[in-house]
Amino acid sequence: MGLRVLVVTLLLGLSLAFQIARGEQIETFSALIAFTYAITIPYAWLVRVLKTPEALTWFAWVQVGVDFLLETVLVARTGGIESPFAVLYVVSVTVASLVTRRRVGLFTASLCIILFGLLTNVQLYGLAEVWRWLPHTRLSGPETLQTFGVYSLAFLVVGFLSGALADQLRVADQSLREKEQGLNRLRAFHENIVISISSGVFTTDEYGRITSFNPAAQEATGYSFVQVQGRPWREVFNWHPSQASDEQIVEGPANARFEVECKRADGNRLVLGMTVSPLHGQGKEKGLVGVFKDLTQIRDLEEEMRRKEWLANLGEMSAGMAHEIRNPLGALAGAMQMLKKDLRGDDTSRRLMEIAVREATRLDTIITEFLQYARPPALNLAECDLNKVLAETLDLVQHEARSRTSITIVTALAAGQLKAQVDQDQMKQVFWNLATNAFDAMPKGGQLTIASGRRTVDAGGRKSDVVEISFQDTGEGIPKKNLDKIFLPFFTTKKQGSGLGLAAVHRIVDQHGGWIKVESSEQQGSRFVVCLPRSADAGVRLWHEGREPWKRS
Predict the structure, then answer these.
(1) Are the beta carbons of 513 and 540 closer than 8 angstroms?
(2) 447 HSE (CA, 13 A, CB side)
(3) Residue 437: Cβ-neighbour burial (10 angstroms; 0-12, 13-18, 19+)
(4) Are strands 446-459 and 462-472 parallel, antiparallel or unpaired?
(5) Which of 80, 111, 262, 521 has the largest count of CB atoms under 10 Å?
(6) What are phi and psi of 135, to 5 degrees?
(7) Rg for the chain, CA atoms, rounded
(8) pTM, 2 dp
(9) 539 with 533: CB under 8 angstroms?
(10) Which residue, 528, 435, 421, is CA-closest to 466?
(11) Under 8 Å CB-to-CB from 304, ≥6 apart: which residues?
């Protein structure tokens, strides 16, 4: 319809201008232009109304028929067989064959020959003189028939070629649509595989920048695709080029398998087992494709099992030795007490005897603490308000802080009660040990912030409430190399420490079904967070689900 308006405007408009310049009749051109503009309005409305392909096909045929009638009128008024506008039949035949997408070229060409033949007969047999609107031809009879034959042949050739072209276009279009549908189905199938796979999958370009990140990868890392798109994959997964197998990943054709430790978006530790391979396209390397599984839960459980096994073996062996040592140690301490009373006047001997008694007492205290750690008493669980338990412990902590150098204690306890199933006495021991450990980390003074709160964790699709008690100091911090050792018995960096304080804390919290998180940086202080379930059963479930194990940052 747009092409028709354009052709009429240019072709008939120019002819109209020439007719006006020569002072000839312009009624035919004006009427055809006006009729074309007027009929385009209902055409445009019908295109919006008609929805089915059959209705649109019939509508196209109506337009083609109207075009043929208008062209016949135009040819008749501009010389008939001698009209320069007879070529418009060729345009209509071509457009009709393409628009309808059917082999109709010969049919429309035949229709044009019939209409054009009627005009030729009218002119040839003098009927124009009767009707007075069709000019008489200046050609002789043979010339008229020759011209008609040339036009007819042209109509037939154009109709045949345009029809054949229309069929080829239809076949090519159908083949292209089928291939496109097949490609779309294949693409959707591959996308569904990548989306449904439980392993994390990512791809990169030739520069190592991430170009795709499947849902499993987003869930494992906590990053959305928007957050990692365009970032180097080594940066996202904390994989540095200096590591041994990086050259193999870049240069080697084989798959590179390795284990990498990085952090989730929320800052928690993340251990991944990863396979990275070259991504090929059109015979060339286009980047990398990586597949990984979250091994954090497995590694945490393995670490905890090794630790528990080691502690169990150590406890069995050491408990017997401690009893054997404690008996003669008690006798030795009693004998030294008796000897101390008999010493008179000898200050050196008295001082040495006091040192021996004091060290024997300290050794007995260490053995007692170790026996309590190796064979802890059964829990006496009861529902308690941890804010109240913490407040009672703070009285002792405040007294201890006054004996230290420039120690300030700040509390930020949650409003309301923090109910949980705990052994009140053992929880007081946990809070006391963490507080005194923070004091020892601030020999030159500092601030200890004690806070409490509650939050909800998701364990295996089930939500559970936990209580958090945090102790944050501004001390020297813990070196990274010692973070994995601080909860081991007898590990200490203090001159007078026994190395059992934090070990006992971990043992008590573990018995309650809870866990401890540690965040520390050298010269910036440390933060110990004790997480306890609201009930003991919930804590056991959370632990076995492996969703919130003992984490170290």
Answers:
(1) yes
(2) 5
(3) buried
(4) antiparallel
(5) 80
(6) -65, 145
(7) 48
(8) 0.45
(9) yes
(10) 421
(11) 549, 550
Measured between alpha carbons, how far is 492 from 485 in angstroms, rounded to an integer? 9
Both tokens assigned to 89? 């039949």
Q: Who contacts 498 (Cβ-Cβ below 8 Å, separation ≥6)?
A: 366, 369, 370, 490, 492
Q: What is the C-alpha separation between 366 and 496, in angstroms, rounded?
A: 11
Helix axes 386-402, 424-440, angle to 10 degrees: 40
- Reference 551, options 292, 261, 207; nearest CA is 261
d(CA 518, CA 552): 5
Distance CA 68, CA 101 (A): 19
Q: Which residue has the tokens 């939500």?
A: 463
Q: In this structure, what DSSP letter does residue 475 have? A: S
Burial of 253 (0-12, 13-18, 19+ CB in 10 A): exposed
406 phi, psi to nearest 5 deg: 50, 50
The CA distance from 370 to 507, in Å, is 12
> Token pair of 239, please?
């994989």
Question: Residue 521 is encoded by which pair of tokens?
Answer: 């940086």
State both tokens at 322.
Answer: 């401690």
> Which SS3 state, helix, strand or coil, does residue 412 take?
strand
Give the CA count within 13 Å in the CB-facing half-sphere of 2: 1
In the block, residue with structure tokens 């994989």 = 239
Q: How far apart are CA 375 and CA 498, in angstroms?
A: 17
For the chain (553 residues), the mean pLDDT of every run of 10, in chain order, is 81 70 63 82 86 81 83 76 77 74 70 80 64 62 78 79 78 87 84 81 89 90 90 86 47 67 83 88 82 85 76 68 70 72 67 76 74 70 89 88 87 87 89 90 89 74 77 88 79 69 84 86 88 65 40 39
Category of 461 on φ-ψ map: left (φ > 0), alpha (ψ -120 to 50) or beta:
left
Closest CA to 101 of 159, 31, 171: 171
Rounded-to-integer distance, Cα 389 and Cα 469, Å: 11
What is the helix (H) or strand (E) element at residue 552, kind and residue range? Answer: strand 551-552
CB 428 within 8 A of CB 493: no
Residues 6+ apart with CB under 8 A from 145: 124
Residues for the chain: how many in total? Answer: 553
SS3 90: helix
Residue 499 gets which letter from DSSP? S
CB 181 within 8 Å of CB 173: no
| Angle, alpha carbons 142-143-145 (nearest 5°) | 65
Residue 81 to residue 137: CA distance in whole angstroms: 7
85 Cβ contact list (under 8 Å, min separation 6): 11, 71, 74, 75, 78
Task: State whether residue 306 is helix, strand or coil.
Answer: helix
Q: What's the one-letter identity of residue 81?
A: I
